[in-house]
Amino acid sequence: MHLATVAHAAGTSAAVLDGDVWRALPAADLSALLAAGTPVPAVRAQAGTVIDGAVPVLPLPAPRKVICCGLNYADHIRETGRELPTRPTLFAKYADTLTGPGADLVLPKGLDVDWEAELAVVVGATLRRADRPTALAAIAGYTVANDISVRDWQYRTLQWFQGKAWDASTPVGPVVVTPDELDPAEGVEVICRVNGEQVQRGSTRTLVFDAADLLAYISTFTVLRPGDLVLTGTPGGIGAAREPQRFLADGDVVETEIPGIGTLRNTVRFTA
Amino acid sequence: MHLATVAHAAGTSAAVLDGDVWRALPAADLSALLAAGTPVPAVRAQAGTVIDGAVPVLPLPAPRKVICCGLNYADHIRETGRELPTRPTLFAKYADTLTGPGADLVLPKGLDVDWEAELAVVVGATLRRADRPTALAAIAGYTVANDISVRDWQYRTLQWFQGKAWDASTPVGPVVVTPDELDPAEGVEVICRVNGEQVQRGSTRTLVFDAADLLAYISTFTVLRPGDLVLTGTPGGIGAAREPQRFLADGDVVETEIPGIGTLRNTVRFTA
């Protein structure tokens, strides 16, 4: 299944793709649908009327947790000059950090804004001190994210959070694809383009910690609930690791694509 | 005013202290009261009946953000061997990380669990790119917190989050004291005792970044809302900086006190 939160004339709705039309699911968005506790495989049976003019927006507007893994692709780790890790490097975002698949990235001018295309995992069941098989079974689906990073703030101190949690800076979407239709273990491509030029392309085959590893590890210290998001890290090719460094400019169009899921298309808009 | 969320026979209620009794405020807890938008100075007028058998519990059970400053007391910075910072080091917790003023700290055995007594700031108004005077005026009050830290997980990777976000590990409370009754700029003592032995004692006069500095700085990148919490860092005396290092043992009683606010009293309970 392809699931989404779609905007339409009367508001938003959780929705499931049926051929080339979106059918309504009984919730205002996927966060609410997952919080209501319906197991994801059962939602197709809830599909209602066709939604005319449906436009996918941020699929999960209200996760309680958005936990990100850094340094998880062998090639990206090498470009930062580090050794392969034995434990995942984790940091947090909040729901406010997220934005939609077509939203402008509105940030104050003068920041060193960089891209990080990522596969994101949507949690589908409550996980607490879960083993790997339990974590794997709890994956509701996968979506696309770009962990847009304000590098100068990220490196002001030892902790990355203040460069990673700018409001409405992390686009997510456009859809959530269920695990029966997409298996990152077989390798899905994670691609970033800036103004049409490919700047990142990696395969999830090279992930050091895969989705189930991350969910199980995180659940050791904090509960994960339906609708929570885990971002799995970015492949090589970030702007900060280039020589010379390259950051996003006002008007730049950032496309983040995972074939089999879809493409985010976000334009950078700097404010005074 | 002293505000709290109190437990009683019929559930919980936001409450205001009137002499030596707690009077009900019209919300189930302080998170809900603040989210409803009543300015804090106006809540006394909402005080209702006396609540018999009121026991303060976690005052803010549902903050959207819990943002913490590390390395903010000159003496604690020196004990970690670092220079005085020009920018606050920030990291995130979630609502799940918090627990009540008398709750047991239930953690798996075998972890290096350490104390960090802190002054916590309760946000009382929405702040977005606020200057310092605006941030100062938006402080609803102050409470006590202990940023209990799992040191071995904190230092597994570069990012502290996984050692700082164990569920129900950060006690907060017992009450929230409004700024008209407590001014950290004049210096309030932040004290931690383990089994009665004082292990930390610092004054907020030595904070590098004070409450208003932190709220203004954070609001540059993310909105703060009524009920959000900002932890201001811990003074010297943590167990990890001792020689030899000292961590908490099963049954240890951790008391965290700020005179003028109150005392948290939490017992460590290790599980198998």
Structure description:
The structure is a homodimer of 272-residue chains. Helices cover 14% and strands 36% of the residues of chain A. Chain A has 272 residues and is mostly beta strands. Chain A folds into 2 domains: 56 residues, no CATH class; 206 residues, Fumarylacetoacetate hydrolase, domain 2 (Alpha-Beta Complex), CATH 3.90.850. In chain A, the strands form 3 sheets. In chain A, strands 1, 2, 3, 4, 5, 6, 7, 10, 11, 13 and 16 form an 11-stranded mixed sheet that branches. The longest helix of chain A is centred in the C-terminal third of the chain and has 11 residues. The radius of gyration of chain A is 18 Å and the shape is globular. Chains A and B meet through β6 of A and β6 of B.
Q: By helix and strand content of chain A, what is the structural category?
A: mainly beta
- Average of per-residue pLDDT values of chain A: 96
Assembly category:
homodimer
Q: Helix segment count of chain A?
A: 6
User: What is the N-to-C order of secondary-structure elements of chain A (H for helix, E for strand)?
Assistant: EEEHEEHEEEEEHEEHHEEEHEEE
CATH topology of the largest domain in chain A: Fumarylacetoacetate hydrolase, domain 2
Shape of chain A: globular
Give the low-pLDDT segments of chain A.
Answer: none
What is the CATH level 1 assignment of the largest domain in chain A?
A: Alpha Beta
Give the name of the CATH architecture of the largest domain in chain A. Alpha-Beta Complex
- The total domain count of chain A is 2
Instruction: Please state roughly what percent of the residues of chain A sit in beta strands, choosing from under 5%, 5-15%, 15-25%, 25-35%, 35-45% or over 45%.
Output: 35-45%
Question: Using DSSP, what is the number of strands of chain A?
Answer: 18
Distance between the termini of chain A: 42 Å
Radius of gyration of chain A: 18 Å
